[in-house]
Amino acid sequence: MILETFPVGPLQCNCTILGDEQTGEAIVIDPGEEVGRIQKRLVAHGLKLKQILVTHGHIDHVGGALKLKRLTGAPIYLNEGDLEQLALMQEQANWLGVETPETAPPDESLADGMTVGLAAYPAQVLHTPGHTQGSIGLHFAPLKLLVAGDTLFAGSIGRTDLPGGNYDQIIDSIHSRLLALPDETKVVPGHGPASTIGAERRSNPFLRG
Ligand SMILES: [Zn+2]
Prior knowledge:
Oligomer: single chain
Distance between the termini: 39 Å
Bound molecules: zinc ion
């Protein structure tokens, strides 16, 4: 198994590459930026990209998806609740003072309960609205791994003050969907260091009481 997470772009979004050396297939999660670098990693490992999975429609997570699709032919998956975020791409770019990346509607929606990923390393889609309406987490149960997007961070939670954000909803999503996972589950958040479900359950100040 090849599993690499590295920050991309000015907001340092965590991009993840998961590959299976046996089949030569890979998925990429959240190619927000630095698509050339992502492509180089795939080529270096001799991997063919099968799916581009996007945890939500914010520019720093989805910004490079279409470019990566054009380079590799892989389809883009994004929850349909975040089509409204794609429609706001120009505004999102203006807030950051960066160029507006070209985006396109996803090839498929990441619907709750759906299984995506590789045959050897499948992931279940957990719809976790609150940071945005289409925010999802990807639970790779056999790997004891959750890719959480901007819903849950080490010691923090995603902001809810942007369009589509809802504080009560993100708290409910985390309690009902993410804290339902086993304590030993590793959490790769959308930004910053990794954590575990157990550590967040015990010490995340936003999740007490
Ligand atoms: Zn975000």
